[in-house]
Amino acid sequence: MKKVLVTLFLAVLVAIGAMTVQPGPSTAAEAVTLKAISAWPKTAVEYKAWTIWSEILDQMIAKRAPGELKVQLLGGPEVIKGPDQVPALQRGQVDMVYTSGAYYTNVLSEIDSLKLSAYTPWEERTSGATAYLNDLHQKKLGVFYVGRLGLDAKFFVYCRLSTCRR
Length: 166
Known about the structure:
Strand order of the largest sheet: 2-1-3-5-4
CATH topology: D-Maltodextrin-Binding Protein, domain 2
Number of helices: 6
Radius of gyration: 15 Å
Strand content: 15-25%
Mean pLDDT: 79
CATH class: Alpha Beta
Distance between the termini: 33 Å
CATH architecture: 3-Layer(aba) Sandwich
Shape: globular
Number of strands: 5
CATH superfamily: Bacterial extracellular solute-binding protein, family 7
Number of domains: 1
Oligomer: single chain
Low-confidence stretches: 1-22
Helix content: 40-55%
Order of helices and strands: HEHEHEHHEEH
């Protein structure tokens, strides 16, 4: 449990860092709600991990930028089917996606290699693997690869480039 919480904390830090890459002046009038979806139904363990991560993210955002940003979980595949979620992210229909690379290997085959990784998410970040994957995602798909939540499952978090660069 401690390992999962540490991993969730690191993922939250990564997400906040990604969302503040190019900060600008903000006011209460500029409050932003990010629409997020998951590839898994609300009854799945993976969805529960996503909600825990989102709650921690909301708490950190509230401390760092109160009233400026909110992540709204829209649901899972009942909202947008798993294979259609990355294209929905590319179109701007949603702002964040928690999914499996298996849903989009047809457009980014390199993502399939992560299922073989023996490294933790923080080791992938330190080694440069996350930066490399983010570069591929930006160039080939126009999305920002945030990383994994740190569960033993190899599922990933993404957000739209325009959203992450604010």
